[in-house]
Design brief:
The protein has five helices and three strands; from the N terminus they run E-H-H-H-H-H-E-E. The protein is of the alpha+beta class. The protein has one domain. Strands 2-1-3 form a three-stranded mixed beta sheet, with no helix packed on it. The two termini are about 25 Å apart.
Length: about 140
């Protein structure tokens, strides 16, 4: 949903910005030990299967699942996928991260990925949850 925001014309009818996607580094995410244990035992919340439909937006879903069979499903579990994400210019991300930690309000932070260009070549008529039936495409890739 956030990745699609650039695709639309704004209120002033300005042309859309460049289309964007994301590359996620699953090893940079902090997972709770209890969540990892539950995932190892195939225990998920009742809403996880609905959220799992969003895997269609991941261009390398099968490889990500094979590489991270415990961690990857947790990205779709609403109990663990509710972390706060900020999109910050890469130039300022380390300073922003340090400022968050220094504030004392956030016990941990992580840079979990990067925004990349999306050329739309993998759309395949794909719509994901919360897309409002708009073409979302395979905008996300998991770094293996």
């Amino acid at each position: 949903e956030m990745l699609m925001a650039n695709d639309e014309t704004d209120a002033d009818q300005q042309p859309p910005l460049d289309r964007i996607g994301a590359v996620l580094d699953i090893q940079a995410f902090s997972f709770l030990q209890g969540g990892l244990e539950a995932s190892r035992n195939n225990i998920y919340s009742s809403l996880q299967p609905s959220n799992l439909h969003n895997r269609r937006a991941v261009s390398n879903h099968k490889q990500a699942y094979e590489s991270y069979p415990v961690e990857y499903p947790l990205l779709y579990d609403p109990q663990t996928a509710g972390g706060l994400l900020f999109f910050v210019d890469a130039e300022y991300a380390p300073t922003f991260q340090q400022d968050l930690l220094a504030s004392g309000l956030f016990p941990s932070t992580a840079i979990v990925g990067e925004v990349v260009a999306f050329d739309g070549t993998c759309e395949n008529g794909l719509c994901t949850i919360a897309s409002g039936n708009k073409m979302t495409g395979e905008r996300i890739r998991i770094q293996l």
